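User: Second chain of the day. Same drill as before.
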Amino acid sequence: MNIEKTIKDIKNINGYIGSAVLNKSGEIIYIDENKNIDLAFASSLFNDTFRALNEASLDIGFSNLIRLETENEEGMIFLIYGNKKQNIFVIFNSKGNISLAKMILIQALKKDK
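Assistant: Same format as last time:
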């Protein structure tokens, strides 16, 4: 996956707030900081949650998770998409084009299975 191109494409989507790319051990390999959000902390927390939910999925006999999507009361949308090599964490506001972001994330991660 071309991280710079993927993040550039995502940054151009309406409603984008910030993003990070983490390897499978949880280390941040790319981050696009936002002044108002501790993106390193947020991405690490969501990555840990994603990994725990993935283990739960495997424990009950299902396959690996490919994404986690959440929204809070303030309308912030948190996306974390993953493959065997890395996870991409992105935050948008509720007016963002989430469908386009999902398409870009899916395509980027498919290229790097």
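The two ends are 9 Å apart (CA to CA).

User: Great, on to the next one.
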